[in-house]
Amino acid sequence: MAGTEVSLITVAYNSEATIGRTIESVLAQTVSPKEYIIIDGASKDSTVSVAEGYREAFEKKGISYIIVSEPDNGIYDAMNKGIKQATGDIIGMINSDDWYEPCAVETVLNAYAKEEFDMFYADLRMHMPNGRTFIKHSRNRKYATSRDWNHPTTFITKAMYDKYKYRNETIHDDYDLILRLKKAGARIVVKNVVIADFTMNGTSHEKSLKKAMERVRIKYGIYRDNGYSPLYFPECFIVEMAKLLIG
Question: Do 43 and 75 have their domain in common?
Fold first, then answer.
């Protein structure tokens, strides 16, 4: 763990209502990251001013605090911008309506000290619109499925991100990157501990049959592009229908 540094990145757009909780979760880490980068897509609300209000708190903790606000070409373009600026050995992404548990960075660094990885992910607490929560557990198995993986808990080394970027083509470009890394033989470590919280109110959970079927088409195309069997169509269909039914 000694000498290994972590960069955390948040991409945001019109997130004034939620970004404070995200930022505070970074400040609450039991082991501080090297830097925290916020990439804002030229928000029209007070997202940037809310973020700027935490600058002194980061300075006191000795954490480099970078805020960039400019137009972008979508969430994955913003993520790529953040990755390009990051200087840590390991990079974590947390969106502006989600947040980390205090143990997140420490858990990742402890895992890396035991077994150096290219990618790490862990369990995620899902927060439904009705206030209920449940744990989405992580696994790494030969049969690839997004049901086993959690983006807010994912940490990927800078070295891997230098080779593989988000394609910025679909709403599932994050999972496309995971499949490409698996295909490339990336060293993956999974730990069954909750290190982040996810709010189920984004594009990937929009409750519309038309939107759900569009997500099925996109995700199935990603599986096929990465060499997976046509039998993955039922996997995509079942996952999206479950989202449609439970939120």
Answer: yes
Number of domains in the chain: 2
CB neighbours of residue 188 within 10 Å: 16
| pLDDT band, very low/low/confident/very high, at 239 (cuts 50, 70, 90) | confident
Same structural domain, 172 and 82: yes
pTM for the model:
0.91
Displacement of CA 233 from its chain's centroid (Å): 24
- Confirm if 120 and 154 have CB atoms less than 8 A apart: yes
What is the amino acid identity at position 87? T
242 vs 16, residue with greater confidence? 16
Q: What is the mean pLDDT of residues 91-100?
A: 97
Last residue of a domain, one of 171, 186, 205: 205
178 closest CA partner among 112, 120, 109: 120
Phi-psi region of 221 (alpha: psi -120 to 50; beta: other; left: phi over 0): alpha
Q: What is the pLDDT of residue 143?
A: 86
Determine the Cα–Cα distance for residues 124 and 147; give it in Å rounded to an integer: 11
